[in-house]
Task: inverse folding
């Protein structure tokens, strides 16, 4: 805690003064972030640092395993953050960001680790599909580190699919007002791989290249033309 207090003191004395005008503007006008990032609560994964974002740039939701539970009538922090980001803040992009050496993914691969943590085990049921994919579709001779990494990447895709079950997301996809992204951060190298929905794979992106996306409204089937045609036929 002493280090945290020193950090607060340094922020107030050395950092804040150079950004005081921005903070006053944000306090006066409110926040207008363009993206929601759903990332892991792992202390080594810092969305603002990875993206070099400043105050007001990102709306961040962090939890164990960067999980997005499928939509249900039960209230939850992640679901509320998604709904608020879209309907109140009007974000145009959502990023699900996984990472290497993820403890949650290790728990999926080694269930005995979760025996003393029933709440974590219950939470990770939302990632069981990722583990099943790796068990069934990947080689049996993967090392433990390779398996954890593979589960982490598949988990990003699974959570993107869960995102599309949320009414606020589905509606914005239908009107082409939102784009979904899947990222995977490598802690050791600092590299970020991006999920390309068209190729169904992760790829490294070089500076200056177009950023691949996971899902856009153009990939969402629009029903209105079909409904109109049906009504006209009647």
Result:
């Amino acid at each position: 805690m002493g280090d945290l207090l020193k950090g607060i003191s340094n922020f107030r004395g050395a950092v804040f003064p150079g950004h005081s005008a921005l903070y006053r503007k944000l306090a006066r006008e409110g926040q207008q972030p363009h993206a929601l990032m759903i990332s892991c609560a792992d202390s080594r994964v810092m969305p603002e640092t990875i993206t070099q974002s400043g105050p007001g740039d990102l709306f961040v939701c962090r939890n164990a395993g960067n999980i997005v539970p499928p939509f249900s009538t039960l209230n939850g922090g992640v679901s509320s953050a998604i709904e608020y980001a879209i309907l109140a803040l009007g974000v145009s992009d959502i990023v699900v960001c996984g990472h290497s050496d993820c403890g949650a993914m290790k728990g999926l691969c080694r269930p005995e680790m979760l025996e003393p943590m029933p709440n974590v085990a219950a939470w990770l049921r939302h990632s069981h599909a990722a583990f099943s994919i790796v068990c069934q579709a990947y080689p049996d001779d993967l090392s433990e580190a390779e398996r954890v990494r593979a589960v982490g990447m598949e988990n990003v895709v699974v959570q993107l699919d869960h995102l599309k079950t949320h009414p606020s997301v589905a509606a914005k996809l239908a009107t082409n007002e939102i784009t979904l992204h899947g990222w995977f951060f490598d802690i050791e190298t600092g590299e970020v791989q991006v999920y390309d929905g068209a190729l169904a794979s992760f790829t490294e992106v070089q500076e200056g290249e177009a950023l691949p996306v996971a899902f856009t409204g153009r990939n969402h089937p629009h029903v209105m033309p079909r409904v109109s045609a049906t009504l006209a036929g009647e």
Summary: The chain has one domain: 31-217. The first strand starts at residue 35 and ends at 40. The beta strands are 35-40, 58-63, 93-99, 179-185, 192-196, 201-204. The chain has a mean pLDDT of 92.
